[in-house]
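Here is one such protein, fold included:

. . .
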Amino acid sequence: MGSPTKVPSRYHSSEPVFGAVAGGVIQDALLHMARENEQYLSELREEAGCFKETQIVEFVFLLSEKWSLTESARYQAIEIFERFMLTLIKEASHLTRAKEEDSKWASVKQQIEGTYVLRLVSCIQLASKLSFHYSIVNNNVVLRFLKSLGFSYTTEELLESELAILKALHFQINFPAPFAYVEMLLEVLGYNGYMLPTKQLLEMCRHLLALTYLLRSSVYDTLLKTSIKNSSPNELQLAKFLPVKEDLMLLAVGVIGASTFLLNPEGLNQVTEYLSDTTGIGRQDIIEAVYAILKHSVGDD
């Protein structure tokens, strides 16, 4: 009762098993993920990414580690929280434009400010339920944690928080998350004989993806300035760059390329070519993403 509910290890493994899925299924899955990514990028709000700041990411990572959640669950939690908060902002903007009575706007504002931590923790709990075969965070664990932060919530309030998030997102919370893209691309490349997804490479990808999320602002600032060859981007360039910051496929190829470079520098050009052929992302775009990640991971050397 004092820790997340776990399924016995003989029934699961937190490690992905590469090479266990047929090639056609892999290609179809990658195509589906690419379409999901493109659809999300086509519907971006200008506030996208605002709720992936370092403090939020660090909070989710540390709590996910404490509660033994999977790699995918921690990124899923960040995505759920981001989409939920953007939904609240969208609702607030509609109320403002429609000049609704002050009481409605005050209610939305209070929901954003007064339940921020509760909603974030609820998103982590919801994400744990998406990976129920591994670890689910039960209500008692969540309530004790919130109490340690000085919040006194009841089980009913916790359930109401989850329901509020689910309703706002129309019960659709299984959003694309970056680690899934990394795993899928490793699977595709390995299946096609381009490279063998080893445990060492996967571990490096995990570390670099987490680091990129924690240093997101700096990494993408470098990528923007590198791509436009200008250290002072204007407002239009910043606006046009938003889809780049939210492109999960680009993030995945950048992480794989950077991981490959750290483990086998001579193999970077070949892997970059294969990643470009697989995703349709230009080689130069991949190289620039790799450079930005490495710059903030190991420095300029």
Observations:
- The two ends are 49 Å apart (CA to CA).
